[in-house]
Structure formats: C-alpha cells, structure tokens
Amino acid sequence: MNVLRLFVLTLFSLTAHAQEINAAVASNFLLPMRDIVTAFEQQSQHRVSIASGSSGKLYAQIIQGAPFDVFLSADQEKPSALLESGHGISGSRFTYAQGSLVVIATNGLTDDPKALLSRGEFSRLAIANPRLAPYGAAAVETLKALTLWHAVSQKLVIGESVGQAYHFVISGNAQLAFIARAQVQNSQGEHPYWPVPTKLHNPIYQDAVLLKKGSYQLAAKQLLAFLQSEQALSIMDDYGYQPAGQQ
C-alpha cells in the first residue's frame, strides 16, 4: 500500500461523522469528478455537492463569498490568485491534471474535423469564452498557431464554458467546437474529433486549492488528498487527463 493511500485511509478513519463538501469544479472536469466523487463517497461517510461552470465564473463567485470548500480550476492562475487574496489556504494548491484539447464535429459530418477546420467548411465554430475558460484561451492559441484566426473569427460562437461549447455542437447550432477531451466520452463515438497537438497551445495545467471555508472541515482536506490517489488518477486517465508535466 503506497504512502498516499495509507494517508487517505487514515484520514477517513479519523472522521467520526459525515460531512457535506461543496466543490467548485471547472466544466471540463465535471465528468471525471463525478466518478471520483462516487469512489470517494463509497470510501468515506461524506457527501460532495458539485457546482460546475467556467473557471472564471467560479473564481468570481468565490471572491464574492460563495460557500465553496474546494476549487478545481482549469488553470493555475486562478487558484494562485485566491491564495494571494486570502481566499485560499497557503500550501494547499497543487496541480491535479494536465488537460487535452480536441475539435469535435457535429453528428452527420464524416470528414476529419481538422480538415473541415483548415478548409473553413463550416458556418459556426464554438469555443469557450477565452476570458473565462482556459480551454477557450487554448482554442484561440491553436487557431492563431494554425494561422486560421482571422479566417474563422467571424464564425465563432462563444460559450461561457466548454460545457456550453459542447452543447452548441451536440445540438447542431455549431458544426465544430473546441472542447476538452473528457467531453468526448459523452458523445459515445457518434462525433468525429481531432486531438489538438499540445505544441499548438500552452499546456493546460489544472490546479486545485483548499478554500478558507474548507479549512475548518477535515472532509474537504480528505477529498483533495483522494484526488491525488492512484484510484483518482486512474479515473482521470480514462477521461484523457495526464499527470502534470506529461504529454
């Protein structure tokens, strides 16, 4: 048994009663987080409520006093800023995953999404708001690296989060969308997608942080410890996430 798993199990044994944890989770990580929470709840007496949205929106809610215990962002900057502002707990921030960007096509399109993107053979391209969502910023970086930004900028449909960008393409309101690879799990193989090479955008390092409210709750600390366990990492791998620093 590795040291981290032993630490997690020891923490569980120290808790005499169930606690409710409020977790703010970036939209791209909602699907794996649901599976991680299921495993966590099975091994502890605790319950986790998930609020999902763009990292920028969740960050603003935390600054405004939203009662979250932990924050799983899609970037490193916002958790770092929460530490500086006193909303996060010093020493608690860590990188839990490195995300992957893909371009997905709406149902019925059989051509390679990369080819459709390059040829401009679409009327709408959905991305998350680059000011709020790190995956949206990575999409803009990719389009600029491919020298396609000016050609497609008038065709963009901006969603608040990658979740909304995914909804646009699934509903047929956009023919292509930049989303997180984890969301492809939802498409059940019906939608062709192109894994965007990491060299086309800055790495998507995703950090978690314990928030001030959660510092009084052992369960919140247990959840963050569990997020670093082999079981949680295996779930992340199933959804296309990699340990930080790997490609």
From TrEMBL:
Molybdate binds at residues 55, 162. Keywords: Metal-binding, Molybdenum, Signal. One of its GO terms (biological process) is molybdate ion transport. CDD domains: PBP2_AvModA. Belongs to the bacterial solute-binding protein ModA family. The gene is modA. This is Molybdate ABC transporter substrate-binding protein. It holds the Pfam family SBP_bac_11. The complex is composed of two ATP-binding proteins (ModC), two transmembrane proteins (ModB) and a solute-binding protein (ModA). GO terms for molecular function: metal ion binding; molybdate ion binding; tungstate binding. Residues 1-18 form the signal peptide.
